[in-house]
Amino acid sequence: MSPVAGLFVLAVLFLLGFPVPYAIAAAGVVIMQLSTGIKWMSITSNMINGINSFTILCIPLFLFAGKLMNSCGITDRLFKAARAIVGGVPGGLGHVNVLGSFIFAGMSGTAIADAAGLGQIEVKAMDDAGYDRDFSCAVTAASSTLGPIVPPSMPLIVFGMVSGTSVGGLLIAGLLPGVVIALCMTALVTLYAVRRKYPRDPFISWNHTLTDLKNGILPCFTPVIILLGIYTGIFTPTEAAAVCVVYASFLGIVVYRAISLRSYLEVLRETVVDAGPICILLAVSTFFGSALIRANVPQQLMESLMQVVDSKWVFWILFNLAFLIVGMFMETVSAITILTPIVFPMAMAYGIDPIHFGIVMVFNLMIGVISPPFGTCLFAVSKVGRISMTRLIKALVPWYLILIVALIILVIFPQISTLLPSMMSLGQ
Question: How far apart are the C-alpha atoms of 66 and 245, rounded to whole Å?
């Protein structure tokens, strides 16, 4: 009964509006008290061990690097560079939207930063070019889901910390799935462009094109630094994050001269404010996971599930259906920290690769951030695009379908997620 009582307490506290970390900690205390009795030292030691890790430093460091990049005014440079590359194809600005999000994901690592930051530029440009506002906002919202898939990715780092999966392997693994998702989106953009006769950019001079590419090339080296550094073994994911901070500082202060000492300190303050809740969540989730293990919850669930589900594919279907719903109601990091200790052992019991599982889980939750009723990116795009939620959700229906197609592809072909990590020996 202890797990049921603990989960009941968790649900009630959520409904009452308690902060997520306090709710998780309280549920963990109830589970531990009813199953084995409270050992206060084990609670504190579990929470300290949850964040006493060199790897966890990459969370605030990547956040800091992304915020520094955003402060340099790079969004406009990136948009112009993407427009110089694919703006001339049918529905050019739709493709620019997807490509811009793919590139921007390599710096921000979050969906909301893409939707709120780059989205404002994208929607305005598409409006000026004569695109439907519904289409402009829908493709902006859908492409923001690339943020937490393409490295660096905050949700993948959190999943790695909670599950014990290689963070370096997860970061590298996100590249090819990101490409697959982006290609699915561009296919839908092309279909829209042909049916609605959307415009393409007129040809501009090579000098102008090269200028736009040159202005946007330096920020694009951020994901290159991460991938090549980890691939060659020059540095760990945490060290890669530190190098990205140095590189972002160099661009903002020396190259673009867009960051003053005062603004630099302000970005640092914002990073601490944003990273604090994530670290607290990791601390309490470690304790919560330990309480579940002490109560034999994962083992009992595995035994019960394996009596009903006799196939890995049936497990995948049930898991994806459940997490598509979870993503609609729970914030991504909270969902990962709470549910990973429960579902991860089940996935391992069915022989699913941990890196493959992590990619699929995060992408599932990313579909949730653009889904009603509580999708954070829905609210962000609705605001920057000045469009009602009802119109936006209606416009997103075809995008939900194409994202689910991409999800099915990622599930059926695990090699998309595991190829690069296996080549680089970065598995669990």
Answer: 8
